[in-house]
Amino acid sequence: MKSVLFSRFFILLPWILIVIIMLDVDTRRPAPPLTPRPYFSPYAGGRGGARLPLRRAGPGRGREQRNESRRPPPPEPPQPTIYAITPTYSRPVQKAELTRLANTFRQVAQLHWILVEDAAARSELVSRFLARAGLPSTHLYVPTPRRYKRPGLPRATEQRNAGLAWLRQRHGHQRAQPGVLFFADDDNTYSLELFQEMRTTRKVSVWPVGLVGGRRYERPLVENGKVVGWYTGWRADRPFAIDMAGFAVSLQVILSNPKAVFKRRGSQPGMQESDFLKQITTVEELEPKASNCTKVLVWHTRTEKVNLANEPKYHLDSVTIEV
Ligand code: UGA
Ligand code: MN
Question: What residue spans carry the Basic and acidic residues bias annotation (predicted)?
């Protein structure tokens, strides 16, 4: 009897050991996380929500992120909203330009797009476009008076002023939230890095602009962290020899200079930037961005006029398509 028991025991022993080892291995597998993993989508946080690429990164950021699973980080201070004022007008390439612009802006956290149509009313094309753009936005319109619609005269004066007026009206009655304003023409090309740079604007910041003024680039000349002159090939006598795409202004400065606007009277093409900046700052006060103004992060690209020579006058297409 005893020997039978012993032999059964030795037959079963390896199986018992195998079961014990398997159970042990299974319990060593990491447990599934209690909280769901963070999911980063370009649309996370809804309209204007935080997006990964433009989070302000600091040294040791990777380590911080790993710790996040244990203890939530202290809330980051609210970052300034970037207000982009874009004048735009109806023409064959308008929707294409606005599409490129929206594709860029959608990747920038906390950006509010102020789109100002040069028109007597909001157009259906722009209204529909904005409704689907997935961006926090404000849609304004103001027509340029006919007498100013001539070659050689400054463009988009009334539209930029309408954007400024909206900002002042919206923020005038309360202590200003941190904000930065810049003028984003609809045909330029903007790198995402540009928005990181301009977001830290304290008063007025400046940076180089590519493909402008008949040169590969124009830029503010910087010495010891201060702007001391301008690298430009066109009207170097301008007090601020800079394109509209080359500067940003803090919301606070816009609010504390309520009369600063773009002027029609006496304004010459290419002088609008200087005329405006003169009202709110001095050259000595400017804050150089983009590595002391040594990097081009925005390009004054201009879209070629499209050839519509073969558009039919009769025998039109059987459907009407918005382009
Ligand atoms: C240059 C500057 O980069 C502009 O900032 C400046 O407004 C312009 O000169 C000027 O002469 O006033 P440029 O490429 O020649 O730019 O000008 P556009 O791109 O044709 O126009 C600037 C902005 O105004 C664009 O966003 C455009 O859509 C808008 N615009 C232009 C209007 O709203 N209405 C118009 O009749 C023409
Ligand atoms: Mn342009």
Answer: 61-73
Q: Please determine, for residue 53, whether its predicted confidence score (pLDDT) is greater than 60.
A: no
Q: Which of 135, 145, 138 is nearest to 122 (CA)?
A: 138
CATH class of the region 81-207+243-291: alpha beta
Judged by DSSP in three states, 133 sits in: coil
Ligand nearest to the CA of 183: 1
Taking the centre of ligand 1 as the mean of its atom positions, its distance from the CA of residue 94, in whole angstroms, is 13
Domain spans in the chain, listed from the N-terminal domain onward: 81-207+243-291
Residue from 147, 155, 232 to probe ligand 1 pocket by mutation (most atoms less than 8 Å from CB): 155
Residue 186 marked ligand-binding: yes
CA-to-CA distance for 273 and 310, rounded, in angstroms?
39
Rounded Cα distance between 203 and 101, Å, is 25
CA atoms within 13 A on the CB side of 171: 23
pLDDT of residue 62: 41
Distance between CA atoms of residues 196 and 178, nearest Å: 15
